[in-house]
Design a protein that fits this description.
The complex is a heterodimer of chains A (130) and B (193).
Chain A (H helix, E strand, L loop, with lengths): L4 H12 L2 E2 L2 E2 L1 H14 L4 H18 L1 E7 L4 H15 L4 E6 L6 E6 L2 E6 H11 L1
Helix pairs in contact in A: 1-3
Chain B lengths: L1 H13 L2 H9 L1 H8 L3 H136 L2 H16 L2
The chains are: A alpha+beta (130), B mainly alpha (193).
Chain lengths: 130, 193
């Protein structure tokens, strides 16, 4: 079901209502979802898809996924969190995700941005350079 | 009867002076001895003249004319034959000259044709050599490109194998301590961004 213009406009307004103090708020999001469930607007499925996409995109912007091979301590995660917060000028939370294919090193993904310092990446770069 | 006539003639002549002269010359005696009578003699002379005139007019003259015409024809034929012989000789000489000139011309044409054929063959040979050289150069270029492509593919394959082998070795050999050290270095590198 294709979303019409009114549904897109409503999804955009609901997304703006999901912020508290300039940050995405879980309580606000829960309230928006309750509102949708209660009022049952036209094209609810399309509206929920649009809203979910906007919230997921915004959530990814404030989340740094740190892929790692080998142990990583909380200090490192905190350092990365602080660095990304400074870089994007908004609160960014880091979460660790083990990935043995990296061999060693870290790969940080913030939204669609990717930062990498891994042995696997260096070997791939080397193979393309040869 | 002849004697009688002669006598009568003599008688008649005797009457004139002529008879006297004839008698003086002895002719009368001869005429008498031979039995010649003047009237018959004159008549025969006249007949002879008439016959001669007729023969001359209707026999000898046409025959002579025919002979002259035949002679003229023979002379003309001989003259024509001589002219024809001369013309034949001239024609033979002219023909020989024409044949000689034709042979020279033909030889010239043949030489020119041979020269043109040789030039054409040389030109074809040159073009064929140029085409062959071009084909050879293109083949060499294709071989070089293929060689470079093969080397690149081999290099890429070798690099891929080296990287894969290295990954497998590192996956087995790297300890957690090594990974922790590398992770700390990576953290410092990423936080400097």
């Amino acid at each position: 079901m294709a979303a019409n213009k009114q549904t897109k406009l409503l999804a955009k307004r609901l997304f703006k209502l999901s912020f508290a103090n300039g940050q995405l708020s879980a309580e606000q999001v829960a309230g928006v979802l309750g509102y949708i469930e209660k009022t049952a607007p036209h094209h609810p499925l399309a509206l929920l898809k649009l809203y979910h996409r906007a919230v997921a995109t915004e959530f990814a912007k404030s989340r740094a996924i740190v892929e790692h091979a080998g142990p990583i301590n909380e200090t490192a995660l905190k350092s990365i969190e602080d660095a990304m917060t400074r870089r994007y000028r908004r609160p960014v939370t880091a979460s660790a995700l083990p990935n043995p294919k990296l061999l060693a090193g870290l790969r940080v993904r913030v939204g669609s941005d990717l930062y990498e310092s891994t042995v696997a990446g260096q070997l791939t770069t080397l193979s393309f350079a040869v | 009867m002849l004697a009688e006539a002669t006598t009568q003639a003599a008688d008649a002549a005797a009457a004139s002076g002529t008879t006297k002269i004839l008698n003086d010359l002895g002719i009368t005696k001869i005429l008498t001895d031979f039995g010649i009578s003047w009237p018959f003699f004159l008549a025969q002379v006249l007949n002879f003249c008439v016959v001669a005139l007729i023969l001359w007019r209707f026999a000898f003259k046409p025959i002579l004319a025919t002979l002259d015409l035949r002679q003229q024809k023979i002379a003309d034929g001989l003259k024509y034959a001589a002219e024809m012989e001369a013309k034949l000789a001239a024609t033979a000489q002219e023909s020989a000259q024409l044949i000689k000139s034709a042979q020279l011309e033909a030889q010239k044409v043949v030489d020119e044709a041979r020269k043109m054929a040789k030039d054409f063959a040389d030109k074809q040979q040159g073009e064929a050599n140029a085409r062959a050289a071009d084909i050879l150069a293109k083949a060499q270029q294709a071989i070089e490109l293929e060689h470079k492509k093969m080397l690149n593919e081999a290099r890429g394959e070798i690099a891929r194998l080296v990287v894969k082998t290295t990954e497998q070795v590192l996956a087995k050999k790297l300890s957690d301590a090594d990974r922790a050290v590398f992770n700390d270095a990576a953290t410092k590198e990423l936080t400097v961004l």
